[in-house]
Design brief:
The complex is a heterodimer of chains A (140) and B (180). Chain A has 140 residues and is mainly α. Helices cover 73% and strands 0% of the residues of chain A. Chain A is rod-shaped. With 180 residues, chain B is mainly α. Chain B has two domains: 84 residues, Rna Polymerase Sigma Factor, Chain: A, CATH 1.10.1740.10; 74 residues, Orthogonal Bundle (Arc Repressor Mutant, subunit A), CATH 1.10.10.10. In chain B, helix 3 crosses helix 4 and helix 7 packs across helix 8. Chain B is elongated and about 50 Å long. The termini of chain B are far apart. The C terminus of chain B is likely disordered. The chains are: A mainly alpha (140), B mainly alpha (180). The interface between A and B is large, with 33 and 47 residues.
């Protein structure tokens, strides 16, 4: 809209235009009595539409809440099924566990062979020439 | 009742407050619509639609003090919508015979005289004159509102002013002004 302080605008507007503007600002035309009834009917219709939209909104919100709760339950139950097994027998199926078992077995074997090494074999041989005692038939 | 209180009650859907609101603003809105639309039934319809839009969109009104301008803009837009449907013709043709209203230029024009003068203008002149002189829109804004060129808006205003001036000041032959 034009700025009110525009001098050129005021100069271009003769007094009758200003007079017209003032008169149009003050202009009041009384509406017909039926107009209020028409307006209230429209407002009532608007209120009804608003209410029905509100109801639909509530129903949708409830459905969304139910779906959300169902999804939550599903997630919890599904998560429990997929959780890592805690039983030892299931651990044995794991290849990594099997490999580590083999390592342990190998290292135990190595230890045994070290314990039963050459020194230990000589010690056993020193006893081999000695006469047997006890209820052995050869010594009697 | 205080205007902000009245507006608040209208927002809450209070029917009595809405009736008060209608009593207060409907005559102003109908006055504005009547300036744009010569047909009484059309202007009444535009007023009802404007009041309906105002009452159902009061939540968008931030400052209650600006309600007069706000509601008037709604009314003007409603009238322009009706006028756009009519497909206004922007010709420079003037009616053959024009009745000559003779308001005394020395006295302040009365609202009824303004209406009688506007009613005698062709619809295109009337619309541009209303928008430019009485509402304060610029030619650019009018062009955008009515989807017409700047020059069309200016020429329509010149013709409207010439015509009105010849009715109001029949003795003055000189042109009133030039449009920038």
């Amino acid at each position: 809209m034009k700025s009110p302080d525009s001098s050129s605008f005021e100069e271009q507007n003769p007094s009758w235009e200003r007079s017209m503007r003032t008169a149009s600002d003050d202009m009041r035309v009384q509406p017909a009595t039926s107009s209020w009834r028409t307006l209230t009917a429209k407002l009532d219709q608007h209120q009804q539409q608003k209410r029905s939209v509100y109801r639909i909104g509530i129903i949708l919100a409830r459905i969304a809440a139910i779906l959300l709760i169902a999804a939550g339950f599903w997630w919890v139950l599904d998560g429990q099924q997929k959780s890592p097994p805690l039983t030892s027998e299931l651990v044995n199926d794991n290849p990594a566990y099997f490999a580590s078992y083999l390592d342990v077995a190998q290292s135990l074997q190595d230890q045994m062979s070290r314990v039963e090494g050459p020194g230990n074999a000589g010690f056993k041989e020193s006893f081999s020439n000695m006469p047997t005692t006890g209820d052995s038939s050869g010594s009697l | 009742m205080d205007l902000p209180v009245l507006i608040d009650q209208c927002r809450q859907g209070n029917r009595q407050a809405q009736a008060r609101f209608y009593q207060e603003f409907a005559p102003i809105v109908l006055g504005a619509c009547r300036r744009y639309l010569p047909n009484d039934a059309e202007s009444e319809d535009a007023m009802i639609q404007s009041m309906y839009k105002s009452l159902t969109s009061l939540d968008t009104l931030r400052d209650p003090r600006t309600i007069h301008g706000w509601i008037r803009r709604i009314a003007v837009n409603e009238c322009l919508m009706i006028l756009r449907k009519k497909k206004l013709e922007w010709s420079d043709d003037l009616p053959e015979r024009m009745p000559a209203p003779d308001p005394d230029p020395q006295e302040r024009l009365q609202a009824r005289e303004v209406l009688s003068l506007l009613d005698k203008l062709p619809l295109g002149y009337r619309t541009i004159f209303n928008l430019y002189v009485l509402e304060g829109y610029t030619h650019r804004e009018i062009g955008e509102l009515l989807n017409i060129s700047l020059n069309t808006s200016k020429s329509q205003l010149i013709q409207a002013r010439k015509r009105l001036a010849s009715w109001i000041r029949p003795n003055e032959n000189k042109p009133h002004h030039e449009i920038s």
